[in-house]
From TrEMBL, chain A:
Keyword Iron-sulfur: no
UniProt-listed PROSITE patterns: ALDEHYDE_DEHYDR_GLU
Top-level division of the source organism's lineage: Bacteria
Protein name per its UniProtKB record: Aldehyde dehydrogenase (NAD+)
Organism classification: Bacteria, Bacillati, Actinomycetota, Actinomycetes, Kitasatosporales
Organism: Kitasatospora paracochleata
From TrEMBL, chain B:
SMART domains xref list: DeoC
Pfam families in the cross-refs: DeoC
Family (UniProt): Belongs to the DeoC/FbaB aldolase family. DeoC type 2 subfamily.
Protein's name in the database: Deoxyribose-phosphate aldolase
Catalytically driven reaction(s): 2-deoxy-D-ribose 5-phosphate = D-glyceraldehyde 3-phosphate + acetaldehyde
Originating species: Kitasatospora paracochleata
EC numbers, comma separated: 4.1.2.4
InterPro entries xref list: Aldolase_TIM, DeoC, DeoC/FbaB/LacD_aldolase
Family matches, as NCBIfam families: deoC
Keyword annotations of the record: Lyase, Schiff base
GO molecular function term, any single one: deoxyribose-phosphate aldolase activity
C-alpha cells in the first residue's frame, strides 16, 4: 500500500527556454598526475608502503589518479617533520606567520578557478558551489586567521598564549578544501604545525594545496599532507608525538577517536554528524523559507553535517508550504557538476549512494510518503534525485539518522513548544533554522534549541568570523571566529 | 466606489471579492500577506543571476528579449521626428538582418500617441502611453482620468499609469485601489474594447519589499493587466529582487484567482546580460506561460542596441561595435 503512494513525477517535455550546456573546462583543473605520494617536510615523497588507492570522478566513475595509502611509517615521518618545523615556526613573530597566511590566501584566490574545477571533478559537487561558495570561503578563512596571528595577546586568553605543537587533522570528503582551510588556517596562525589527512575519496585539492604551500614559500614541514583511508587517520590520531587532534566526520569515528585519546594529554576537537531541524512558522516569509529549505538540504547534495534534513513545519501552513516546495524542487537542475547551471551534482561515492538508498528505502518501508521531481539522471556516475518524505514521524529512521544526502524528512508541529521539543529530540545538536517574521520568537526559540548554530530566516550561511560546532553527539570544540583559536592554543 | 471594487476582474470567483469592500478589509488583507525577507529575496535574485546562458539558449533569449521591449522615449524634448525615428527603429531594429524580431511596443507620452500610431500602421507593434500625470502622479483624479481618456482616444493600445505613492505610503490603500479601478474604466473605448492597463508602482519610492508585495496584490485585485516596477524617472528603478518579488506575486495571484497578470520591469536595464538575468527569473519562477511579450515586457531604450550587438556577434561570430547599430 505504501508503494503506490510514492510518487515520482513523470519527466515532462522541455520548456521554451532550455539552457544550453555551459560546461566549465575540465582542463582548467590543471594537470592531475597519474599517481601521488605524500607531502612531507616540504617535498612530495613516495610512501614507504606499496598500497595505492584510487580516486574517481563520481560524475563519470572514471579514475582520476592513484594515491598512496599512508603507512604508520609515513605518518611517523610526517609527524617528525612537523615536530622539527615547530620550533622555528612557533618562534616566529605573529606578524611573520601572518605574511605566509596572507600569501596563501592570495594564491588561493589567484588559483581559485583551477581549485574549483579540481574540487568539482574529485568531489562531484557543482561548479557553481565550488566557485561561489567553497573557494571564496577558503580564501576568506586564511585571510581571517592571518589577521589573528599577530593579535593573539588580545584574543582573551591572556598575554602570549602558546601553541600546542603538532596538530593531527583528519577531514571529510564533503568540503575537502574548505575543511582543510578550517583546520590549517587557525593551527598555523597560532604557531602550530600540522599533519593533515584528507578523505580517501577526495585527496586531490589537498595535494594541490601542498603545491600552494611551496609556492608561498612556507617553511618546510609546517604543513604535511598524508593520504590514505581510515587506517592512516587512526595512525595519525594515535601517534604519540601529536599534541592536538582535530577531526571532522561521522559520529561513530569521532567516538572511536575520543576513546583512543582518553587518558592522553592530546587536546581534541570533534565536529561530527547532525540532523538539523529547519523550523517554519506560519508567519514565515514563505518564498524565502522555501529557498532556505532547498538550500538547507540540497546544497552540496545534502552532504553537509549541518544540513537542514528535518523540516518542521507548522501544521496550519503545511499544504501551502509543501506545494511551494515541490514547485521549487521541480526547477532544480541535477547533472554534470561542471555545467555552470547545475544545482545538484553527483553523490560523492558508490558507498554513500548505497547508504542514502538504503535509508530512503527504510523510509518507504516505515510508511512515509516519498516524492521526487521529474529529472533525468546521467547514465554513469553516482546520482540521487532530490527527495522529499512527508508523513514522517519522530520514530522513523529517516527522522533520526543522518542520511547525508539530498533527502528531506517533513514533520509537523502545532506550537512553538512542540517545535522545540521535536527539534531537540535527536542525539545530535549541530545546527537549526527558524523561519518567522517575529523577532521575539526567534530569540525565544534560539535560547531553547540545543544546537551549536541557530540560523534565523536563513540557512547554511558560513563566515570565518563566526564560530561553528556542536552540542551533544555532534561534537565539541569550535572552529571559526575568535573561539576557533582556543582549539589550537594551550589555554 | 464599492461597486467598482466588487466588479474588479481579479477578484471574481476567488474568495477575494470582498477584500476591497472597505478600507479596513483591504488593509487587513494586504497586511496579512506573507512577509518578504530582504536578505533571502536578494540572495535568490543574485543566484539566478549566475545562470550561464550560452549558444542556442542565448540566441533564443536575445530574440525573445527584443520582442518584449517597450521601446521608450519619455523626454520633455520629444518631437514628432524623434518619435517617428523610434518607431522606425522598432519596426526594423536591425536593417542588416530582416530576421530580427520587432519590439513589442513603442512607449510615449499621450501627446505623441497619434504620431506613433501613424508611424506603426500596418504592424502589430503596440503603442503604449504613459498617463495619469506621469511620472509623479500628482494631480487630481479627474485630470488623471482625462489624461488617460485622451491617450486612449488618440489610439493608445496600452496605458502605463502611475499609482498615488503618497496615498499608498500614508496607508490610504482604498484610494489607490479606487483610482486604479477608475483608470481601468477610462481605458474603455466606445466599441467596448479597452486599452491594456499597466500599473506602475515606482518601487524606488515604495522602498520596502513588503510594500512592493502589497502594491502588487492591490493592483492585481483592482484589475491591472500588467504590473510595472518604475517610471525610469527616479534614482532606483527596476532591480532583479523587486522584479522577482513581483513575479512571485503574479504567480500566486494566478494560483489563487486563475487570472494571469503580466510584469514589466522598467528603467536601468541596459545590457543583454541584464536582460538574460530577468528572463532567467521569469523562466524559473513562472515558466513558459509568461515567456511571451503578452505577459512580460522590458521598459527600456538603450537595451535594444546592446541586444542587437550581441545578436550580430552570435550570428556573424564577430563583435561589430556600436557604429553598426542605428542610433535613433
Amino acid at each position: 500500500m505504501a508503494k503506490n503512494k510514492n510518487v515520482e513525477e513523470p519527466v515532462k517535455k522541455s520548456g521554451l527556454f532550455e539552457y544550453a550546456p555551459a560546461p566549465e573546462s575540465p582542463a582548467a583543473a590543471g594537470d592531475i598526475a597519474s599517481s601521488y605520494g605524500h607531502f612531507i617536510g616540504g617535498e612530495f615523497v613516495d610512501s614507504s608502503g606499496s598500497e595505492a588507492l584510487k580516486t574517481v570522478n563520481p560524475a563519470t566513475e572514471q579514475v582520476l589518479a592513484e594515491f598512496a595509502q599512508g603507512t604508520d611509517e609515513d605518518v611517523d615521518r610526517a609527524v617528525t617533520a612537523a615536530r622539527k618545523a615547530f620550533a622555528d615556526w612557533s618562534a616566529l613573530p605573529g606578524s611573520e606567520r601572518a605574511k605566509y597566511l596572507f600569501r596563501i590566501a592570495r594564491i588561493v584566490q589567484e588559483r581559485s578557478r583551477e581549485l574549483a574545477v579540481l574540487e568539482s571533478i574529485d568531489n562531484g559537487k557543482p561548479i557553481r558551489e565550488t566557485r561561489d561558495v567553497d573557494l571564496p570561503l577558503v580564501a576568506a578563512h586564511f585571510f581571517y586567521y592571518a589577521g589573528w596571528a599577530d593579535k593573539l595577546d588580545y584574543a582573551g586568553y591572556g598575554a602570549n598564549p602558546k601553541p600546542l605543537g603538532v596538530a593531527g587533522q583528519v577531514i571529510p570528503w564533503n568540503f575537502p578544501l574548505l575543511m582543510l582551510a578550517w583546520k590549517i588556517a587557525p593551527a598555523l596562525a597560532t604557531g602550530n604545525t600540522v599533519v593533515l589527512k584528507p578523505a580517501e575519496t577526495t585527496p586531490l585539492t589537498a595535494l594541490r594545496f601542498a603545491e600552494i604551500c611551496r609556492q608561498a614559500g612556507l617553511p618546510k614541514g609546517v604543513v604535511n599532507i598524508v593520504t590514505g583511508d581510515g587506517r592512516t587517520g587512526a595512525a595519525l590520531t594515535a601517534h604519540p608525538d601529536v599534541n592536538k587532534v582535530a577531526f571532522t566526520g561521522s559520529t561513530p569515528v569521532g567516538r572511536a577517536i575520543a576513546k583512543q585519546l582518553a587518558g592522553t594529554r592530546k587536546k581534541l576537537s570533534l565536529e561530527l554528524g547532525g540532523k538539523a531541524a529547519n523550523i517554519v512558522f506560519d508567519d514565515a516569509p514563505i518564498d524565502q523559507a522555501v529557498e532556505g529549505i532547498v538550500n538547507g538540504i540540497f546544497f552540496n547534495q545534502g552532504h553537509v553535517c549541518c544540513a537542514g534534513s528535518r523540516l518542521l513545519v507548522q501544521e496550519s501552513i503545511q499544504d501551502e508550504l509543501l506545494d511551494a516546495l515541490k514547485r521549487r524542487m521541480g526547477t532544480l537542475r541535477v547533472g554534470d557538476p561542471l555545467d555552470k547551471n547545475t544545482d545538484i551534482g553527483a553523490i560523492n561515492s558508490a558507498e554513500q549512494l548505497a547508504r542514502i538508498t538504503a535509508l530512503t528505502a527504510a523510509g518507504e518501508a516505515e510508511g512515509a510518503e516519498r516524492w521526487s521531481p521529474a529529472c533525468e539522471l546521467p547514465g554513469n556516475g553516482f546520482w540521487f534525485r532530490p527527495t522529499l518524505f512527508t508523513g514522517v514521524s519522530q520514530a522513523h529512521r529517516i527522522a533520526q539518522e543522518e542520511i547525508f544526502g539530498p533527502v528531506l524528512s517533513v514533520l509537523t508541529f502545532r506550537t512553538p513548544a512542540e517545535a522545540v521539543e521535536k527539534a531537540n529530540n535527536t542525539p545530535y545538536g549541530l545546527s537549526a533554522g527558524i523561519w518567522t517574521e517575529k523577532g521575539s520568537r526567534i530569540l525565544w526559540m534560539a535560547n531553547r534549541l540545543k544546537a551549536g548554530v541557530v540560523w534565523a530566516n536563513t540557512f547554511n550561511k558560513f563566515d570565518p568570523t563566526s564560530p561553528f560546532g556542536g552540542y551533544k553527539e555532534s561534537g565539541y570544540g569550535r572552529e571559526g571566529g575568535r573561539h576557533g583559536l582556543e582549539a589550537y592554543l594551550d589555554v | 466606489m464599492s461597486t467598482l471594487a466588487a466588479n474588479a476582474p481579479g477578484a471574481a470567483g476567488s474568495g477575494l471579492a470582498d477584500v476591497a469592500a472597505s478600507e479596513a478589509s483591504l488593509r487587513r488583507f494586504l497586511h496579512g500577506l506573507p512577509g518578504v525577507d530582504q536578505v533571502g529575496l536578494e540572495a535568490r535574485a543574485a543566484t539566478l543571476g549566475t545562470r550561464s546562458i550560452k549558444t542556442t539558449a542565448k540566441a533564443y533569449a536575445i530574440d525573445l528579449a527584443i520582442s518584449m521591449i517597450d521601446l521608450t522615449t519619455l523626454e520633455g524634448a520629444d518631437t514628432v521626428g524623434k518619435v517617428r525615428a523610434l518607431c522606425a527603429k522598432g519596426r526594423t531594429p536591425d536593417p542588416s538582418d530582416p530576421g530580427t524580431p520587432r519590439v513589442a511596443a513603442i512607449c510615449v507620452y499621450p501627446d505623441m500617441v497619434a504620431t506613433a500610431k501613424d508611424a506603426l500602421r500596418g504592424t502589430a507593434i503596440q503603442v503604449a502611453s504613459v498617463a495619469t500625470a506621469f511620472p509623479a502622479g500628482r494631480a487630481a483624479l479627474p485630470v488623471k482620468l482625462a489624461d488617460t481618456a485622451d491617450a486612449v482616444a488618440a489610439g493608445a493600445d496600452e496605458i502605463d499609469m502611475v499609482i498615488d505613492r503618497g496615498a499608498f505610503l500614508s496607508g490610504r490603500y482604498l484610494d489607490v485601489f479606487n483610482e486604479i479601478v477608475a483608470v481601468k474604466e477610462a481605458c474603455r473605448r466606445p466599441d467596448g474594447t479597452a486599452a491594456h492597463l499597466k500599473v506602475i508602482f515606482e518601487t524606488g519610492e515604495l522602498q520596502t519589499y513588503d510594500n512592493v508585495r502589497r502594491a502588487s496584490w492591490l493592483a492585481m485585485l483592482a484589475g491591472a493587466d500588467f504590473i510595472k516596477t518604475s517610471t525610469g524617472k527616479v534614482a532606483v528603478n527596476a532591480t532583479p529582487p523587486v522584479t522577482l518579488l513581483m513575479l512571485e506575486a503574479v504567480r500566486d495571484f494566478k494560483a489563487q484567482t486563475g487570472v494571469q497578470v503580466g510584469v514589466k520591469p522598467a528603467g536601468g536595464i541596459r545590457t543583454t546580460k541584464d536582460a538574460m538575468k530577468y528572463l532567467v527569473m521569469v523562466n524559473e519562477t513562472l515558466g513558459d506561460d509568461w515567456l511571451t511579450p503578452h505577459w512580460f515586457r522590458f521598459g527600456a531604450s538603450s537595451l535594444l542596441n546592446d541586444l542587437l550587438m550581441q545578436r550580430q556577434k552570435l550570428t556573424t561570430g564577430r563583435y561589430s561595435g556600436p557604429d553598426y547599430v542605428t542610433v535613433d
